Amino acid sequence: MYQRFYGLTQLPFELTPNPKFLFLTRRHREALSNLHYAVRSGKSLTVLLGEAGTGKTTLLRAVLESEEYSHIRWVSLNNPILTRADFIRTLAARFALGPDAASSKARFLEAFERTLRERRSRGETSVLVVDEAQSLGYELLEELRLLANIETPTDKLLLLILAGQPEFALRLNQPGLRQLKQRIALRCEIAPFDLAETAAYIASRVATAGADSARLFTREAVLAIHECSRGIARTINVICDNALLGGFGVGRQPVDRQIVMDVVGDFDLGPEQAVVLPPAQTGPAVVRETAAGDASPDAGDCETPSHGLFEHFSSPRRFAFFGMAGR
Fold this sequence. Notes:
Layout: H1 2-6, H2 26-41, E1 45-49, H3 56-64, E2 72-77, H4 84-94, H5 105-121, E3 125-130, H6 138-147, E4 158-164, H7 167-172, H8 178-182, E5 186-189, H9 195-208, H10 213-216, H11 219-229, H12 233-250, H13 257-266, E6 286-289, E7 295-298
Parallel strand pairs: 1-4, 1-5, 2-3, 3-4
Antiparallel strand pairs: 6-7
Helix pairs in contact: 2-3, 9-11, 11-13, 12-13
């Protein structure tokens, strides 16, 4: 129904229900496929790029939690702002190398390589995932490069996946990191949602909760959510969650543009996000491709439904489904 209501009739992806509630656009699906391929084929270094809040951590967890990787031994590092000594101690603990391995770098490397070889002999693969890679210092990036060199004549013993924001790509262009950049076997990037994807994302989250987005948000509300969130999934979650709560509080159904803008103001999203929108239109939002390739809304004729907000939810607590993917 959301396609007809919002005027979005063609999408570059399918809204197939997923047991893990994972919403995938074309770019997200491509990145997820690359991550799976990197693990299955033993690629030494994979880089995943994306703006904050676009779903990098969600994709990584989808791979890490996949049932097909029972032979994979994962270690995930989510806070890489560490000194070199702390980095070694952290890896020694998470790879279960024993307390002696953390006492010096030489002992760590000896125990680390021995453990990786033992795992490989049992048919296991070791993977180190580093999130927020843009925060890694030069020393730790060099340490990671050297760890990736541990190998047999035919295989890499440690697979690295580095996920970071777009500025991480700029850092990799620095001359001092050229050796690390040369070792990148796979590189993928995810982008914020366009208007069609934002509407589809909202519809998918609402459908997961057992409701119909056309009965919860007006067309103008969805346009405002997209403009003010800039297509960032995490921000969409926050706006939608609070807009539904606000609409419940004032008894307004469905959520309209004014409620969305009130939420935007309350959260002080900033002038770069809180775009001044044109007056609310009465027609549906139709997505057209401009000459520059951007999706832009147009107006048409469509009757606004009068379905109630409250018939789907018995209390405002049920609105919190937008918080499920807010990380």
